[in-house]
Amino acid sequence: MRCAACGREAGKLVDSLCPECYRRINLRVELPEELRAEVCRECFGVLRRGRWHRGAESVEEAAEQAGAGAIEDALRVTGLSEPTATIRTLQVYMRSPRDCTAEYAVKLRGTCGGEVAEVEVRRRVNVKLTLCGSCHRRASKYYEAVLQVRGHGGLSGELREELAGVVHREVQRRATEERAFITMQKELKEGTDFYFGSHRIAKQVAAALQRRYGGSVKVSTTLVGVSSSGRPLKRYTFAYRMPRFRAGDVVMLEGTPYQVLRTSGSRVRVLNLHTRQEVTLAESRVEGAELLGRAEEGVAGVVTDVLEGGVEVMEMRSYTTVFVVADVKLRAGDEVRVLADSKGRYYLLATAEEAENEARGEV
């Protein structure tokens, strides 16, 4: 049998053509010689099909992803059954601070005319290094919302640092989302203001603070303009106020000393320091309590004797023995922490066992 195209003898013909001529005539790979892609040089986002995709950890990694995506989007193959494409990066190199080039080998494999066929092409993709909309807004100090973090009587330096760390980590967790950035952070006498590129993320971070520390969030808006489509443009303010008391604080409520174990929304979990029973109280009720001291003011001690209604503890700072009212299971020699109020009364803070029970949710 002779091939109708080349005239050579062939053991097998497909549509009157030998396998080689059939592939030559029917197998087509369409992939432009000039390909272009865009990458954000700040957040390493990759622009593909009109949307920015984030996750790369360097501009080189982003350029490699962008080039491969451009090839995948532009590649067209005809005459190949069940095709598979393998895109292998050959090299990525910077040409200037604003553009780079990525080179690839593209291998196609499938069946053509009943036989396995492989084709390899090489392409170069020019990658433009630009700024995505989010990073452009960030550079121009754009913000949609202000998160105001406040405490009763201001915030200590240590607490400011802790809260700022939580805020920035929450934003970082959403790094792949649009406008996930903080434009400015202002330290004020009454607290800290965080300026967010996205009001939606600011709302989520405020909610995260409330879940972690309790307290309240109030929302207000200001009209700042009108969009080209006539939609009102608003700027949001999320005023987060921490609860008066935080985990570890010792308070006197209605004549009974309690230690705050944790806060959650409008509820406060406390430990009765006399009966050692845990109860959950409304935050509004606890707000009126008297602060006796904070956990960090407590000092180490050693139980010297267990008596009816309480224990004797040697306080290791002054090496004095004090009696503490507490219905708790302890033995002589156990290590504890105690706290003295301004009147010289001592309270036994949550023991290691009580803290473990609280962490496990046991009462």
SSE inventory with pairings:
Blueprint: H1 19-26, E1 28-30, E2 34-40, E3 46-48, E4 51-53, H2 59-74, E5 76-78, E6 81-96, E7 99-112, E8 115-130, H3 133-139, E9 145-150, H4 157-172, E10 182-188, E11 191-196, H5 199-213, E12 216-226, E13 232-241, E14 250-253, E15 256-264, E16 267-272, E17 278-282, H6 283-286, E18 290-293, E19 299-307, E20 310-315, E21 320-325, E22 335-340, E23 346-348, H7 352-360
Parallel strand pairs: 2-8, 9-13
Antiparallel strand pairs: 1-5, 2-3, 3-4, 6-7, 7-8, 9-11, 10-11, 12-13, 14-15, 14-18, 15-16, 16-17, 19-20, 19-22, 20-21, 22-23
Helix pairs in contact: 4-5
Characterise the protein shown here.
It is elongated, with a radius of gyration of 34 Å. The termini are far apart. It is 21% helix and 45% strand. The chain is built from 7 helices and 23 strands. The mean pLDDT is 88. The longest helix is centred in the N-terminal third of the chain and has 16 residues. With 363 residues, it is α+β, with helices and mostly antiparallel strands. Strands 4-3-2-8-7-6 form a 6-stranded mixed β-sheet. α4 packs across α5. It folds into 3 domains: 102 residues, no CATH class; 101 residues; 111 residues, Beta Barrel (OB fold (Dihydrolipoamide Acetyltransferase, E2P)), CATH 2.40.50.140.
